[in-house]
């Protein structure tokens, strides 16, 4: 009997809305791409030449030979994300509890035995941010600044989009006897219309045993193409075959070992010669110019773990990268990659969109319990799409590690205002955007030091929040600050559904108290008593 595969109906409300949004965005791809290139090139031009003032001096004094022209492939060329938040050092602050206690992230700090530690979260959020940079920058930061072992940067094929548009990189904490393997997926690039169209794509496909999954994310991992329904059915068949083969091996090994079940340990030959999971056509799978993310990364990770049997696997990403990280980790279990899946230390996602329906979430939660950390900052719009409502029926994996605009954090079942839009929220979101500008201008520097000073580009981007608060809140800078300034471990505040209006009001009031307390601390010092039952920024 053929596996059960169900595709989002062609004429459903979701599919029609998705098609209109995707077509509108993709029609803007070339002009938006060119605009992004011009902006990034200009930013780097002034950065490499010491800023506008020094650039003018060079021009006026005819020092034209000293003018540096940016090379987008060079290891000093920053992306827009890099310009927003140029920090690349791993965070060290021994003056505060639960901070990393070493000047470098070696085996003493990362991986920590506690996968929910601040040091582990910091490595993951910085890797998620670094994934936006070009391969040369990624390699330089991993090797020369983090003092870790760079493995490979991936630029993978998306058959539906007919382009290379999925990026990720792998590194380990040490070249030999590694204790950690990290896979970081690139998120939504600001001027990549195809990335935004993937985020706002509402189409789904329901797979046997797994549930409903966002179709655009499956395509980004190189597993299917909606243009060819047969690829979805082939993926389901391949996944079931791989899973059944693994179960057969594990059953045979258990029978030989006194019925003790352990993940099947593949030989190097099995890993290298494993059939593809992807449902795409064989000529695409065999094309070396069209590397497919899921299969390519899984093979590389499998070989690394074979050579480093004590290593844990950490998977991370921001925005679209967070969605791919969560889906990738879940697919390892679904496709029978039990040996790799058993090595997962943690999955950290920052501002990720929703990935699947309730069946998918139930499956993912059963496999990733205690290892999945979903971080959401304040009014970020991306974690609230596609919508979690009766029509679209998307759900989030795991609990939400929610941080407000002064980086106070709690663990909740769902982030407040989970579907984002609502007249009652507009005023508070815009007021909060004003606060974020004031905080970024000088308050955060006064309170925490120069390492938290925000770049001019970051402040300009925050001003966008006056019109579009949810977009400005998606800034990776907010997630780095949340990890470095927020309380660890987070308090479990709300056990029920955060959508309840009374709980939302309670959290909003807490945010206002924290803002007032933050301002009071800066101007009046530690003599000011905390507003409420907790002291946020304890020393």
TrEMBL record:
Q: Biological process GO annotation list? A: lipid metabolic process
Gene3D superfamilies documented for this protein: alpha/beta hydrolase
The Fungal lipase-type domain covers which part of the protein?
Answer: 290-388
One Pfam entry for this protein is: Lipase_3
Question: Which CDD domains does this chain map to?
Answer: Lipase_3
Under Gene Ontology molecular function, one entry of this record is: triacylglycerol lipase activity
* InterPro entries in alphabetical order: AB_hydrolase_fold, Fungal_lipase-type, OBL-like
Q: What SUPFAM superfamilies does this protein's entry cite?
A: alpha/beta-Hydrolases (SSF53474)
Provide the protein name. Answer: Fungal lipase-type domain-containing protein
Query: Source species, please?
Result: Physcomitrium patens (Spreading-leaved earth moss)
The top of its lineage is:
Eukaryota, Viridiplantae, Streptophyta, Embryophyta, Bryophyta
């Amino acid at each position: 009997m053929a596996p059960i595969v169900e595709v989002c109906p062609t004429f459903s409300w979701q599919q029609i809305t998705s098609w209109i949004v995707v077509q509108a965005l993709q029609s803007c791809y070339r002009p938006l791409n060119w605009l992004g290139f011009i902006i990034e090139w200009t930013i780097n031009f002034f950065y490499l030449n010491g800023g506008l003032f020094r650039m003018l001096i060079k021009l006026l004094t005819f020092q034209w030979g000293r003018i540096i022209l940016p090379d987008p492939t060079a290891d000093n060329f920053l992306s827009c994300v890099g310009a927003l938040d140029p920090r690349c050092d791993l965070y060290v602050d021994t003056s505060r509890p639960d901070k990393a206690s070493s000047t470098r992230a070696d085996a003493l700090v990362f991986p920590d035995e506690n996968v929910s530690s601040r040091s582990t979260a910091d490595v993951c959020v910085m890797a998620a941010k670094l994934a936006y940079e070009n391969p040369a920058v990624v390699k330089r930061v991993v090797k020369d600044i983090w003092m870790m072992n760079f493995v490979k940067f991936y630029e993978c094929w998306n058959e539906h989009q007919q382009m290379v548009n999925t990026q990720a990189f792998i590194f380990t904490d040490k070249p030999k006897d590694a204790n950690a393997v990290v896979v970081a997926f690139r998120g939504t690039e600001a001027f990549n219309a195809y990335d935004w169209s993937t985020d706002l794509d509402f189409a789904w496909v329901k797979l046997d045993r797994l549930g409903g999954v966002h179709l655009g994310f499956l395509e980004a991992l190189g597993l299917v193409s909606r243009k060819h329904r047969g690829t979805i059915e082939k993926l389901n068949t391949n996944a079931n075959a791989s899973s059944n083969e693994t179960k057969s091996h594990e059953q045979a090994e258990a029978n030989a070992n006194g019925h003790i079940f352990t993940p099947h340990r593949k030989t190097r030959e099995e890993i290298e010669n494993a059939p593809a999971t992807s449902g795409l056509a064989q000529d695409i799978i065999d094309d070396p110019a069209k590397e497919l993310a899921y299969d390519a990364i899984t093979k590389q990770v499998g070989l690394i773990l074979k050579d480093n049997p004590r290593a844990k696997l950490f998977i991370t990403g921001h925005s679209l990268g967070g969605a791919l990280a969560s889906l990738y980790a879940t697919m390892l279990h679904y496709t029978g990659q039990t040996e790799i899946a058993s090595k997962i230390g943690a999955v950290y996602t920052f501002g990720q969109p929703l990935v699947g329906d309730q069946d998918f979430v139930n499956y993912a939660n059963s496999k990733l319990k205690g290892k999945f950390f979903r971080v959401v900052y304040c009014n970020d719009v991306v974690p609230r799409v596609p919508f979690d409502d009766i029509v679209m029926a998307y759900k989030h994996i795991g609990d939400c590690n929610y941080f407000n605009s002064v980086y106070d954090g709690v663990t909740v079942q769902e982030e407040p205002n989970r579907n984002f839009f609502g007249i009652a929220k507009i005023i508070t979101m815009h007021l909060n955007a004003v606060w974020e500008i004031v905080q970024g201008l000088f308050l955060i520097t006064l309170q925490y030091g120069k390492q938290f000073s925000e770049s001019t580009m970051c402040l300009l981007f925050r001003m966008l929040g006056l019109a579009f608060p949810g977009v400005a809140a998606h800034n990776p800078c907010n997630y780095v600050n949340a990890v470095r300034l927020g309380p660890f471990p987070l308090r479990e505040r709300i056990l029920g559904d955060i959508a309840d209006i009374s709980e939302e009001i309670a959290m909003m009031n807490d945010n206002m108290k924290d803002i007032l307390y933050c301002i009071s601390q800066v101007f009046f010092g530690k003599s000011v008593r905390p507003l409420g039952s907790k002291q946020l920024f304890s020393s």
